[in-house]
Write a structure and sequence with these properties.
- By secondary structure, the protein is an alpha+beta fold.
- It has a 5-stranded mixed β-sheet with strand order 4-3-5-6-7.
- Helix 3 links the parallel strand 3 and strand 4.
- The longest helix has 19 residues.
């Protein structure tokens, strides 16, 4: 099976990153967050750059998502964190969408175009949010949380990006 790739350019030269590539950079802690960022980039890049892959160093990202997996995925593909084009902005929280969906909001900009994506309902389990926020988890809870992270990543990666993230707003 061919693994999906996120394609970008660096000075006009193509680069492509699969989920496994990004996980090698990130490590093993937050595969669900890596999968979310992967789906966001799969969804957003064609909307932002209709003629082909975008130049990676011209992409800016604002998000309400605080997870290190997402941050690392965006950094590897775009270098946005290192170059000051990545920010976590709590004002993007969509609290009206409830605890599960509120922080899964991503605003990406490229060459005057901006798209805001939000997670569609049904992709994050309440148990995942509850366990993830719990302090002093037991070893059994840690094991369950690790399983939930992997399970979520597998589910998200099996879906087309438009089934996971919807366009909330766009400025072109």
């Amino acid at each position: 099976m061919n693994e999906a790739k996120i394609e970008v350019l660096e000075d006009g030269k193509p680069l492509a990153y699969g989920f496994a590539d990004i996980m090698h950079y990130h490590g093993f802690g937050f595969p669900g967050g890596v999968a979310h960022a992967f789906k966001v980039m799969e969804r957003a890049f064609p909307l932002l750059s209709v003629d082909g892959p975008p130049e990676r160093r011209e992409i800016s990202i604002r998000t309400a998502f605080r997870g290190p997996g997402g941050r690392d995925a965006f950094e590897m593909v775009t270098r946005a964190l290192t170059e000051g084009r990545y920010s976590v902005d709590p004002s993007l929280d969509r609290t009206e969408r409830g605890d599960i969906l509120a922080r899964y909001v991503f605003e990406l900009s490229y060459r005057g175009r901006t798209v805001t994506l939000q997670l569609r309902d049904g992709h994050v389990r309440e148990e995942f949010i509850t366990l993830g926020r719990k302090t002093n988890r037991t070893p059994a809870e840690e094991e369950r949380l690790a399983w939930l992270k992997l399970e979520m990543a597998d589910r998200l990666l099996a879906l087309p990006p438009e089934a996971v993230y919807e366009e909330a707003t766009a400025r072109f």
